[in-house]
Each structure stands twice: as C-alpha cells, then as structure tokens.
Design goal:
heterodimer; A: 312 residues; alpha/beta; Rossmann fold; 5-stranded parallel β-sheet; globular; B: 248 residues; 9-stranded mixed β-sheet; two-stranded antiparallel ribbon; 13 strands; binds flavin-adenine dinucleotide; binds adenosine monophosphate; electron transfer activity (chain A); flavin adenine dinucleotide binding (chain A); ETF_asu_C_CS (chain A)
Chain lengths: 312, 248
C-alpha cells in the first residue's frame, strides 16, 4: 500500500491551492495514508489550513527560520530526511515544485516523474512531452520512493472539511547558507489568481500596448475573471511576466478562457488545452486559435469588447 | 572565470510533433533538429559575461549520439571556446544527464554552470536542480536576469508570484528562462572559424556514470482532441452562446 508525503506550497502565510490538487492526485493512488509537510519559519497557520483538506491523515510541520523563504537547496534535504517510510513524495508542478522536487529526487537518487496528468497504477503515470503534443505513459522503478510533480491543471482541488492531526517533525540535517533570498517583486492585484480562477481573459500582441490592456482588465473585472497574456504581450512589456500563459508560463484549466488578440501558437495552446470552454476573439479568421476554440468570433477586439461589456 | 553551458539538441520548436500510430514513439525521422531554445539563451548569457570581461572561457557540452558534432559546431560558431561531446546512442534522462554534468564539472572546475530551464523535448525541467544538489552548490532556476560580481551571482527568477531575487555564492548552477536575453545569430565567417576550435569527445561508458534509475516509457499517445467549435457573428451571439452553455 502507498504512503504519500505532499510538500505544501505556501506564500505569505497562505496555503497555495496547488497543495489540495496534489491531494487529489495522491488519492488516485488509493493510498493507505496521505500526509502533508509544511516547512516554514512559523508553520502554524498554513498547517491549520492544510489540516482541513479532506483525506489528509497528518500534517507535519518543520519550523525553522531558514525556511522563511522557499529556497530549494535549503528545503530539499529536510524533505529527503522525512521521506523515509513514504512510497511517494509529491509536490505541485508550479515554479515552487519544479524548483524543489528534482532536488529531493536527486538526494534520494531517484528519477522524477514531472507533470503527472493521471495515475494509472502505483508506479505508472501519464505525463505530457513536446509541449503537450504527446502524452506518454511512464513506469517508475518499484524498489524505492516515487518523486513526482503534479500537473495542477489536470486535477481539481480536494474538498475541505477534514481535520488532520498536526505534528511537529524534527529533522536533523545540516542546511546550506550559500543562497540568500533578496525579495519578491509581485504585481498587486485584487483579481482572481490566474492559476485557480474559474474564468480567465487573456490578451495578446493584438492588444497593442500597455495602455490598451485596460480594455482586457475592464472586461475581466466585468466577468469576475483572472487576467492572463501571451508571451508576445509580456515580451512587449504590456503586462508583467507572471501573467504569461503557456508552455513556459502557467498551465491553467479555467471553466471559461477568453483569448483576445492571440494568434494561438502551439506554445500558448499548451497552457489552455484543459480549459472547459475556449472563446477566441481575433480579427484574422485564419488564426490557429480558431482551430481549438469552442466559440470563435472574428473581428476587431476594440469594437467587440465594449459591445460584450455592454451586453453583460 | 570559466562557464560550462548545457547545449542539448532537440526537435526544432516549430515542428509539429506526430505520434506514431502504434504508440511506440514520436516521428523523428527527417525532422529538423536544433539547439534547445533555452540552451541557446544559456550560451548567449555566457558569451555576454565573456564579452564583459567577467568570464574568460565558455565551454559547451552535449550528451548525444555521434552525429551531433554539427550541432556542437553551431555552439562554437556562436562563440563558445570549446565543446565537449559525451557520446551515447541512448536517450539520456535528467538524473543521468546531471550525473554526467557532475563528471564534467570535476574535470573542468567551472565557476558557473548555465543550463536551460527545460529541454523542450522531454519538458522535464530537472537537470539543473539535480546537478546543483549532487554538486552541493546553489541553484537559481528560471533566470530572467543574471549579474556576476565578486564571487557571487545575483539572479532574478521568473516565479508564479512574480520576480524573485536570489544571491548565490559561486560556483553555482543557473537555469535560463526565455526573457534572459535574445541569442545572437551565427554569421558565416564564424562557421568557418568554428571548424578549428577544439572539440573533445568522451564515450559515455568511459565516464563511469551510474545510468540506473530511469523511467520506462511504455506508450506514446496523441493528446485528446477538442471537439470542433462554432463561429458566432457578433457580440450578442457570443453572449447567447455562453448563456446556452451555462457560463454566464
Ligand atoms: C520555447 C518557446 C516557448 C514559448 N512559450 C510560450 C508561452 O508559454 N506562452 C505563449 O503565449 N507563447 C509562448 N511562446 C511564443 C509563441 O510561439 C508565440 O510567439 C506567441 O504566443 C505569440 O503571441 P500572440 O498570439 O500574442 O502574438 P501574435 O502571434 O503576433 O498574434 C497576435 C494576434 O492578434 C490579432 N490581432 C491584432 N490586432 C487585433 C485586433 N485589433 N483585434 C483582434 N485581433 C487582433 C492578430 O490577428 C494575431 O492573430 C514560446 C515560444 C518558444 C520558442
Ligand atoms: N543530453 C543533454 N545534453 C546537453 N544538455 C542537456 C542534456 N540533457 C539536459 N541538458 C541540460 O539540462 C537542461 C534541462 O533539461 P531537462 O531537465 O531535461 O528539462 C537543458 O536545457 C540542458 O541545458
């Protein structure tokens, strides 16, 4: 029987929704137990949140001032130390998990399964390669723990309503001091978080400028949607990098995705294939985005978006 | 200062990948191969550090079959001083690649190793992190800005929440994100010059790397197809279509 350890992702004292998605993926293993580990300077608040995820047996906390910021080379030895006794160690396929989990795998001397889309057996998983243009089935060796990242767009969040036991864990490992955290520049936004929003409106190069992006923000606010962008829009400086959707940005799965002035390059489509309904607004009727859109509208975004806002 | 750069050969990013009907792999016969885009960025960044006088030598390394020499010549033509070709016919997964790079580090003693944040064939995004771990040195992944001074690197990283800054002691491993730089184009005279630059070949078997613990791929499938959508003619029809789907 499987025993799963999930590494909690958190920022500024809040648990990231990706953690509850990892729990859903872990449940697909039909495991004996699922534990979550919270590494932080002061893990109490995050641990209390994690304990409410249904299906979690225990929340382990590792309090250490060195864990104040998520530095992979600091966190990894602690997780590897706790991994004994677990058959699976999961983390989310966010930048946090992508940075950290391969370090855990290397310490345990095991290959990592990146971006788990589905669980086919205790050691068999499906994952995307070539920007999602092929899905492979991989088997991990059965003689030691599986380290994996969970593709968050493939899994819903596990429900709340649990009451896991919270236990302080002690780890006795030397931590490196070669890496210093200097800060995070984050765009402040009251809009829904791109990775968990039910609706997302994205703008591309067609929007034309940073000033013009207001039309995207206004429309998104009317819908109560998160805002995303193509790489071209980020590169052109219309919006900050954390808004990028796609192969090298965020992979998202909202119920509704509205692509505005985005051509539909394969690297962008990779990020939105799991969306429930894709709407495309583009003035070029031959744009590839229309090949995967559920609802397409050919026309000038500067004319259509105000009309849509008025009709809502 | 010496910089070691990972320079993987992959299927070109413009190729539309086809899965073989029998699920045994993807079609690679006759398909265009190029340097991994993130690795071109890695090489460009190393060359810029050399242009600024911070680095003195840039070494590109690849782990690939014997026919990858032309690929390495491109790296030399772009400006690398030397190339190392670890020759193997087997596809190499990230953990094994990291173990190979560790051997190269022991031999070359670089002050900085720059890899791509991911290889766009396997999309694993693991090698740099695994290498830093095995080496016991700092990592700064997904870099969009890199400054090297006085035995330290200050790295801006593209993370989900925004832009994070780390300061790491050297030697360290940095992995590149797309916005770090725009790689230079190779000029014809440089291709000629590259022919006389040193290229060392090492048989994978001679490195004594443990190639155990790999994932076994049992099946390849095309991604699920989305069903064909509808076109609407104006904003009013779009709103009606969204209402019909219960989305508004
Ligand atoms: C390794 C790699 C990774 C990449 N990763 C990503 C990624 O993660 N995400 C990503 O998005 N891209 C990524 N790209 C880039 C990708 O290939 C495309 O270049 C990019 O997605 C194009 O952005 P765009 O659609 O906004 O721009 P364009 O392709 O220039 O399209 C703009 C569109 O706007 C339309 N338009 C213009 N004006 C109007 C108007 N007034 N009204 C309506 N429509 C209008 C045009 O018809 C056009 O279709 C990556 C590329 C590489 C090589
Ligand atoms: N076979 C290889 N040859 C050269 N570099 C490699 C190889 N495999 C991985 N790398 C480096 O490691 C990075 C990340 O690869 P991956 O972990 O496979 O996504 C790549 O961008 C390269 O810089």
């Amino acid at each position: 029987m499987s025993k799963v350890l999930i590494v909690a992702e958190h920022l500024a004292g809040k648990l990231n929704a990706a953690t509850a998605k990892c729990v859903t993926a872990a449940q697909a293993l039909k495991p004996e137990s699922i534990d979550i580990v919270v590494l932080a300077a002061d893990p109490a608040g995050v641990a209390a949140e994690a304990a409410q995820i249904a299906g979690v047996a225990r929340v382990l906390t590792v309090a250490n001032a060195a864990n104040a910021d998520a530095i992979a080379q600091v966190l990894a030895p602690q997780i590897a130390n706790l991994a004994a006794g677990y058959s699976h160690v999961f983390g989310p396929s966010t930048t946090f998990g992508k940075d950290l989990m391969p370090c855990v795998a290397a310490l345990l001397g095991v290959a990592q399964v990146s971006d788990v889309m589905s669980v086919e057996g205790s050691h068999t998983f499906k994952r995307p390669i070539y920007a999602g243009n092929a899905i492979i089935t991989v088997e991990a060796p059965t003689d030691h723990a599986v380290v994996a990242t969970v593709r968050t767009a493939s899994w819903p969040e596990a429900a709340r309503g649990g009451s896991a036991a919270i236990e302080a864990a002690s780890v006795d490992v030397a931590l490196p001091t070669h890496t210093r955290y200097k800060g995070l520049a984050a765009g402040k936004s009251d809009r829904p978080d791109l990775q968990s929003a039910r609706r997302v409106v994205s703008g591309g190069r067609g929007v034309g400028s940073a000033e013009n992006f207001k039309i995207i923000y206004d429309f998104a606010d009317k819908l109560g949607a998160g805002v995303g962008a193509s790489r071209a829009a980020v590169d052109a400086g219309y919006v900050p990098n954390e808004l990028q959707v796609g192969q090298t940005g965020k992979i998202i799965a909202p119920e509704l995705y509205v692509a505005v002035g985005i051509s539909g390059a394969i690297q962008h489509l990779t990020g939105i294939k799991d969306a429930g309904t894709i709407v495309a607004i583009n003035k070029d009727g031959d744009a590839p985005i229309f090949e995967i859109a559920d609802i397409g509208l050919v026309g000038d975004l500067f004319k259509i978006l105000p009309e849509l806002e008025a009709a809502l | 200062m010496k910089i070691l750069v990972g320079y993987k050969r992959v299927v070109d990013f413009n190729v539309r990948i086809q899965v073989k009907p029998d699920g045994s792999g993807v079609v690679t016969d006759g398909v265009k191969l190029s340097a991994n885009p993130f690795d071109e960025i890695a090489l460009e960044e190393a060359l810029r550090l050399r242009d600024k006088g911070i680095a003195t030598e840039v070494v590109v390394a690849t782990i690939a079959p014997a026919d990858a020499q032309a690929h390495l010549r491109n790296g030399l033509a772009m400006g690398a001083n030397r190339a190392i070709h670890v020759v193997t016919d087997q596809p190499i997964q990230s953990l094994t690649a990291a173990r190979v790079f560790l051997k190269l580090i022991e031999k070359e003693q670089p002050d900085l190793v720059i890899l791509g944040k991911q290889a766009i064939d396997d999309d694993a995004s693991q090698t740099g992190q695994m290498l830093a771990t095995l080496w016991g040195r700092p990592q700064a992944t997904f870099a969009s800005k890199l400054e090297v001074e006085g035995g330290k690197a200050t790295v801006t990283r593209e993370v989900d929440a925004g832009l994070e800054t780390l300061e790491v002691d050297l030697p360290a491993v940095v992995s590149t994100d797309l916005r770090l730089n725009e790689p230079r184009f190779i000029k014809l005279p440089d291709i000629m010059k590259a022919k006389s630059k040193p290229m060392e070949t090492i048989a994978f078997a001679d490195l004594g790397v443990d190639a155990g613990d790999t994932l076994k791929t049992t099946h390849f499938a095309p991604p699920p197809k989305r069903s064909k959508g509808v076109m609407v003619k104006d904003a009013a029809e779009l709103v009606a279509a969204l209402k019909a789907k219960g989305l508004l």
